[in-house]
Specification:
Layout lengths: L7 E3 L12 E3 L10 E10 L2 E8 L8 E3 L9 E3 L50 H12 L7 E6 L31 E3 L5 H4 L6 E3 L2 E3 L17 E3 L6 E2 L2 H10 L8 E6 L2 E7 L4 H12 L5 E3 L6 E10 L2 E11 L6 E3 L2 E3 L8 H16 L4 E2 L5 H21 L10 E2 L1 H8 L3 H10 L3 E4 L2 E7 L2 H7 L16 H7 L1
Parallel strand pairs: 7-21, 9-11, 18-20
Antiparallel strand pairs: 1-6, 2-3, 3-4, 4-5, 7-23, 8-15, 9-10, 11-12, 13-14, 14-16, 16-17, 17-19, 22-23
Helix pairs in contact: 5-6, 6-8, 6-9
The structure holds acetyl coenzyme *A and zinc ion (ZN).
């Protein structure tokens, strides 16, 4: 090993000698854990140093500013002397010690990457996510129980079908996905210091105050403020509450722009054309970027449709989440980006958005799949949706003719659900449902899965969807 390649692990008596790129145990907020963290940036204000840290095995949304007392300086790994990254992660190249506060970037088009990042940090979900991820894997791998219902698959299963966008199980990604040539939020493959750090402290959106998870390229004058104020209907942003109040006097919107194409109870969906409502679409992308890490923001929203889900009350239609969709996808993507705003997360809205996206695909008579890479939470949600939807089909399939057992083909599952074939196969494999028995593939469904189905209360009612798919290829030719 070259001398330059060595990492320097040393005792350092004070935090003063710490530099960016150092790794050391740091106390995580809201707990007594001291995971290994990397110092991304250091700032000094009134004689006090603040450290922006990334917990090495955790998702970036947990990155935070900490004070000196949160650092365990007894064992520090200094960055390599050649300036290369410590322990394989990117070490910032620039130093930002000083009074400037959190660095940020002016509004700009972010340069297009050569290839997207394909890491899914599923080991580090919020709320003890490592445990959750392990539990999920266990759930997926659960062995067939005695009281199972056997269904024959009248189609061979490819031996080593790669799971789309899935690196949970294997831990290694295959770089198959390529970024679109034009997009509103495009998968990115590089991290510079600026975009590695959260730049917005807090947003106020309607009655919610939300702490952002990631960097978003809001204009310079919006960063370093205690809070930015966003109109919940048109998504325009303002520096202060006063400015927003002035805006609200003029802003007459009480729902997103575009057509309301679905309404059931208090839930509505609005379809917004990224070309016709460019300002709204761009502001939606900016807002979404605060919670989406693996995408880079572009301002060309023309090729996209945006489906915004709202909840209605006497004050209007409040945004809950959305997904974007390419008007024409050469790769059969039916979702580009998907988001449930944090105050609404873990209540079933994510799977409702996913269900809606497949309902649109059913209307189009196509199968579809989400754009890759998926985030950790995206993968969890899709896996859960796919598993429940496919199990539902399997449990309700009936024996045909003289057959004792129901027979269903993979293609039939695809047709019924609009889920793309690779995703159906990977789901069956993940659930450990496929077995080879007497020369044929058998799917064995555990009756306990019925319980899991009962939990899903929020469902899309296709009767409430008033929508006709457009042929965008023809439209493009007309223009
Ligand atoms: N930890 C563990 N499990 C979670 C978490 C979490 N923080 N959040 C959701 N889940 C699980 C739920 O338990 C549920 O599974 P289950 O029903 O089997 O128990 C499943 O994920 C879906 O839960 P929902 O409540 O339906 O989904 P939610 O409204 O929370 O939205 C979403 C999911 C959209 C992924 C949300 O977490 C989000 O917006 N995240 C930030 C943006 C993002 O990562 N989007 C996906 C990017 S991939 C792409 O754009 C194609
Ligand atoms: Zn407004």
């Amino acid at each position: 090993m070259n001398e330059n390649d060595e990492e320097l692990t040393t005792f350092c008596d004070s935090a003063a000698s710490l530099v960016e790129g150092c790794r050391l145990p740091v106390r995580m907020q809201g707990g007594d854990d001291w995971p290994l963290a990397e110092i991304i940036s250091i700032k000094e204000s009134r004689g006090q140093r603040g450290y922006y840290v990334h917990y090495v095995d955790f998702n970036k949304r947990l990155d935070e500013w900490v004070g000196e007392s949160w650092l365990d300086t007894r064992k520090v790994q200094f960055p390599r002397r050649d300036g290369a990254p410590t322990g394989g992660t990117t070490t910032p190249k620039k130093t930002h010690i000083g009074s400037g506060g959190m660095p940020s970037e002016p509004r700009q088009l972010v340069s297009r990457p050569a290839s997207p990042t394909l890491t899914h940090d599923t080991s580090s979900l919020v709320n003890g996510g490592a445990v959750l991820a392990a539990a999920l894997q266990k759930k997926m791998n659960r062995k067939r129980k005695a009281n199972s219902l056997d269904i024959e698959v009248a189609e061979p299963i490819p031996a080593a079908e790669s799971e789309t966008g899935d690196t949970i199980a294997s831990g290694a990604a295959t770089p198959t996905a390529r970024p679109r040539q034009s997009g509103s939020l495009v998968a990115h493959g590089h991290d510079d210091l600026v975009t590695r750090m959260k730049n917005i402290e807090m947003i106020e959106l309607g009655r919610h105050r939300i702490r952002p998870w990631y960097f978003a390229p809001y204009p310079q004058e919006m960063v370093n403020l205690p809070c930015i104020y966003i109109c919940e209907f048109c998504l325009k942003y303002r520096k202060s509450k006063k400015c927003l109040e002035r805006h609200l006097i003029k802003c007459k919107l009480k729902h997103p722009p575009g057509n309301e194409i679905y309404r059931k109870g208090s839930i509505s969906f609005f379809e917004i054309d990224g070309r016709k409502n460019k300002c709204y679409a761009q502001n939606l992308c900016l807002l979404a970027k605060l919670f989406l890490d693996h995408k880079t923001l572009y301002y060309d929203t023309d090729p996209f449709l945006f489906y915004v889900m709202t909840e209605f009350d006497s004050r209007g239609f409040h945004i809950v989440g959305y997904f974007s969709k390419e008007k024409e996808s050469t790769e059969d993507y039916n979702v580009a980006c998907i988001l449930t705003l944090p105050p609404y997360q873990r209540k079933g809205y994510g799977k409702l958005l996913i269900e809606f996206s497949y309902e649109l695909s059913k209307f189009e008579g196509k199968t579809g799949s989400p754009e890759k890479p998926l985030s950790d939470l995206g993968l969890l949600s899709y896996r859960s949706y796919w598993a429940q939807t496919i199990l539902d089909i399997l449990m309700h399939s009936k024996p045909v003719g003289d057959n004792e057992k129901p027979i269903i083909t993979i293609n039939e599952i695809c047709e019924l659900t609009s889920i793309k074939k690779e995703d159906v196969i990977s789901t069956l494999q993940n659930l450990n449902l496929i077995n080879y028995y007497k020369g044929q593939y058998i799917i064995s469904v555990n009756r306990q899965h019925e319980k899991a189905m009962e939990k899903r209360m929020l469902r899309i009612d296709p009767k409430c969807l008033h929508w006709t798919p457009k042929d965008w290829s023809k439209r493009a030719k007309c223009v």
